[in-house]
Structures are given as structure tokens and as C-alpha cells.
Automatic annotation (TrEMBL):
The keyword Transferase does not apply. Keywords: Monooxygenase, Oxidoreductase. InterPro entries: FAD-bd, FAD/NAD-bd_sf, MOase. This is FAD-binding domain-containing protein. Residues 13-334 form the FAD-binding domain. Belongs to the 3-hydroxybenzoate 6-hydroxylase family.
Length: 422
């Protein structure tokens, strides 16, 4: 006779779904402000897979607010310049010093291994914050603001606040009714190279712009991250190669005929198990302008769950860190009755705390809406210009667009999400 396990119900004030960069940063930001949360992670342990993230000044300001910026700086190289080349001719088209006097005092740009970011964030959290092997199967609403999160092991979590940090294919976003992210009609292949000794490359960001786009970024003295983005229909791409690392590598090398010899050697040196291919997706920018698509009845979204974007200005991970700091501050202000959160009127039967949190989350949506809209739109348009074909666009790219792209990346990265103050 089979005994059916009964549902076990647990009360938690704040539940975060997903222990990636966004989920861990959000939980840590709340912890810094004295607010407890738990993080649900479907895998059995911390997900350290993935390559590296280019982090611009806005990300470092957020990491400093979280109290982990200096620790990560010690394990990375600060970029001294950004150099652009034509992917069609291989000739240099633009260069900007990243040490010029015109930069903000706290300007910083580096490339960090994803593993180091998530491990650093995880170590700062109280023991037991992350609940591994917690697979969300469904979400339902009870009495308006209370959410019931059902897990595969029959556990049911009752929560006042539900935060979706569960990536591009977010279950929380789907439950909120957001349209699916749209296909950008482009793809990316990424790789990572480790050297037994110091690689000797300058701490600079090298990018090749053209019908195909390459980027090469040193993370530390012994490792480099690279990416290749392209439009499949323009390069006779066969999706079947995604199952064959050998063919993926051959495909990337075939596109790299005009990169420098040292850049080509980086691609050639990449091990087959370091290659990863993915279609690029983005949230339609106009979907972000609707308040209920960011926050709905004390449920909200952070990072890729809210705003997947193309990687053309390097702001996916950076903006997720911004989200985490802003959201934690808004929730903390609501819980501890700080002056910036004002509840005009309670409806009959409303719980005051629930209502304050609702107002706090709406403040988060208001603060983030236009920033996210501009990041998604700018990234898509920059990518479209850099990878489009045609004589006119190629001429403009050679003469003006490379410089414009670099300046745009720096400008979009000069954003301050603020500090975490108790």
C-alpha cells in the first residue's frame, strides 16, 4: 500500500525563487538591511556554471553597496582601455582610454568569473538561507496578497512577498502573466580559456564589430573570456552544430578570419567543454512600461526574469545587481516605516504591513521602469547597428559607430543605484 505524503505548510515572509546572481544579491541586500528571506534553488547545490560577466561602474557601485566589491576586485583585472576593430577588415576603428580624467571618481570596469560572483555572495548569507532541491511546481494566491508556493516535495510556502529571480524562462513571470521574451534572431557562442601561466595580455576590452561581433576580455592573469554574436541567417548557420562542440569551434574559427593573430589563438586554444551556444532573447521594452509586469500583488521580478536583454552593451548582470539594491531598499523602507514610504489609506480588511510592502514594491517598479526600458532598447539597437550588413551601414560602422558604441556602453554604465542604509 502506497502512503501519500501530505503537504507541509511553512510560513515565510519573503521568498526568492532562483539562486543565481540576481537571487543571491537580492537576498544579501535584504540581509544587510536586517530583513530575512529564503532563496529557493531547484539544483542540489550552488550553480557555478557559466563563464564570466563584464561588470561596469554601475555594477561595482551595487557590489560595494552589498559589501563585496573589494573582495571581487582583488581577483580581477581593471580594464585600462577599450579597443574596437572592424570584423570585416581587422583594422582598428576606435579606442578609448578607461583611465581618462573625464571618468567618474569611482569608475571601474572588469570581467569576473560567474563562479566567483555567486560563491562570494553565497558566503555572505546566513547559513540555511538557500534551500536547495526546491523545485517550484505552481504558485497560487490566497486572500489577495498571500502567495502559496508549491514545491515538488509537497512543501507549501505561505509568503507575504514573492520575488522571481528565476531567469529568462521564469515561472514567477509566467504566473504574473508576462508575455514570453521575444527572439532577437541572433545567437551567441561563448568560451573561456585558462592558461597554466600568466597569459600576458593587456587588461583591455577588445571588440570586433561587423556582420559578426567578437569580444575578448581578460578576467585575471591566467584566464580570458570571449564571445561571438551573429545572425544565423546571415552566416549559413546550422543549428545542429550546437550538439557538437567540435563543429561549434570550427564554426567560430571560420568567422574569425579577420581578427588578430593573438585573438585567433585564444579561440583556437579554447577547450571543447568550455563552449556554450544560446539564442539571444529580450523582453519587449513596452512590456516593461506596464506596472503590473514588474510588480503584481506583492510579487515582483528581478534580473533576467524581468528584463532579459541582448548582450550588446554588457548590462544584463549589471542591471540585475542594480535591481537587487533598489528592491531591498524599498522593501526595508516599507517594513521599518521609513519616511519615503507613505500609505495614504487602508482599505477595509487590509493588513497594514501587507499594504506598506505593496506600496514599497510599487516604488521599486517606478524607480526601475524607465531605466530598464532604456537598457533593453539601447542594447538591441546597438546590436542591430553593429551586426547589420550593407555598404552604408558598414561605412558608418567603420567611421562612427564603433566610437559611438563604446561611449554608449560607458554612459549606460555610469548609473548609481544608491546605497543600503539602515
Amino acid at each position: 500500500m502506497q502512503i501519500q505524503k501530505e503537504d507541509m505548510e511553512i510560513n515565510e515572509d519573503i521568498v526568492i525563487v532562483g539562486a543565481g546572481v540576481a537571487g543571491l544579491a537580492t537576498s544579501l541586500a535584504l540581509h544587510r538591511l536586517g530583513v530575512r528571506s529564503i532563496v529557493l534553488e531547484s539544483s542540489e547545490s550552488l550553480r557555478t556554471t557559466g563563464f564570466a560577466l563584464a561588470l561596469w561602474t554601475n555594477a561595482w557601485r551595487a557590489l560595494d553597496a552589498l559589501g563585496v566589491g573589494d573582495s571581487l576586485r582583488q581577483r580581477s583585472l581593471r580594464f585600462t582601455r577599450f579597443q574596437a576593430f572592424s570584423a570585416d577588415s581587422g583594422l582598428p576603428t576606435a579606442e578609448i582610454s578607461l583611465e581618462a580624467n573625464m571618468k567618474p571618481v569611482d569608475y571601474d570596469s572588469r570581467c569576473i568569473k560567474r563562479q566567483e560572483i555567486v560563491e562570494t555572495l553565497e558566503k555572505e548569507l546566513p547559513p540555511g538561507t538557500i534551500k536547495y532541491s526546491s523545485h517550484v511546481v505552481s504558485i497560487e494566491e490566497e486572500s489577495g496578497l498571500v502567495k502559496l508556493v508549491h514545491l515538488a516535495d509537497k512543501t507549501v510556502l505561505r509568503t507575504k512577498v514573492l520575488i522571481g529571480c528565476d531567469g529568462v524562462n521564469s515561472k514567477v513571470a509566467k504566473w504574473m502573466g508576462l508575455p514570453k521574451p521575444v527572439d532577437a534572431n541572433r545567437s551567441a557562442i561563448r568560451g573561456y580559456v585558462e592558461y597554466p601561466e600568466a597569459h600576458g595580455f593587456e587588461p583591455k576590452f577588445c571588440a570586433y564589430f561587423g556582420g559578426v561581433r567578437f569580444g575578448f576580455l581578460p578576467c585575471d592573469d591566467k584566464s580570458l573570456y570571449w564571445f561571438c554574436t551573429f545572425t544565423p541567417s546571415a552566416v549559413d548557420y546550422d543549428e545542429k552544430i550546437e550538439g557538437s562542440p567540435t563543429k561549434m569551434k570550427q564554426f567560430v574559427l571560420s568567422l574569425a578570419s579577420n581578427v588578430s593573430k593573438e585573438a585567433y589563438n585564444i579561440l583556437e586554444r579554447s577547450s571543447l567543454d568550455s563552449l556554450y551556444c544560446a539564442k539571444l532573447k529580450l523582453r519587449a521594452p513596452w512590456d516593461i512600461l506596464k506596472r503590473d509586469n514588474i510588480v503584481k500583488n506583492n510579487t515582483c521580478l528581478v534580473g533576467d526574469a524581468l528584463h532579459p536583454m541582448t548582450p550588446d552593451i554588457g548590462q544584463g548582470g549589471c542591471s540585475a545587481l542594480e535591481d537587487s539594491v533598489v528592491l531591498a531598499r524599498c522593501i526595508s523602507e516599507a517594513i521599518f516605516l521609513r519616511k519615503s514610504i507613505k500609505v495614504e489609506k487602508l482599505e477595509e480588511g487590509d493588513d497594514e504591513l501587507y499594504t506598506r510592502i505593496k506600496v514599497g514594491l510599487e516604488k521599486y517598479a517606478k524607480e526601475r521602469r524607465w531605466r530598464i526600458f532604456s537598457l533593453i532598447s539601447t542594447s538591441y539597437l546597438v546590436g542591430l547597428a553593429q551586426e547589420s550588413n550593407g555598404k552604408v551601414i558598414s561605412y558608418l560602422r567603420e567611421k562612427f559607430l564603433a566610437q559611438f558604441t563604446i561611449e554608449t556602453m560607458l554612459r549606460m554604465g555610469d548609473f548609481n543605484c544608491g546605497k543600503l542604509l539602515k
